[in-house]
Design goal:
It is built from three helices and no strands. The protein is mostly helical.
């Protein structure tokens, strides 16, 4: 077994647990970039670890998780740019 992949899997699990815990205790917003980034990193690490172990359902799940995270981050970035470009009504 590849030690780097094992460590990536553990770090990824930690990132996902941290994201969940921080949202649960109100320290992060579920709609915010930090939460989405932690989820994205966690899913990527678990996908890598799952592929190493040939756990294909987990690879597929985490691949979809990554796509959702990327789409959400893209949407947050677009909304932020739109808000920055909008003229103030005050």
């Amino acid at each position: 077994m590849n030690l780097a992949v094992t460590l990536a899997g553990w770090a990824a699990a930690g990132a996902l647990l941290a994201a969940y815990a921080l949202v649960s205790i109100g320290r992060l917003s579920g709609a915010g970039r930090p939460f989405q980034a932690l989820n994205l990193l966690g899913a990527a690490g678990l996908m890598l670890n799952s592929a190493e172990h040939r756990a294909w359902p987990s690879v597929a799940l985490n691949g979809i998780w990554i796509l959702i995270g990327l789409a959400t981050l893209t949407g947050l970035t677009s909304a932020r740019r739109s808000n920055a470009a909008a003229p103030s009504l005050q």
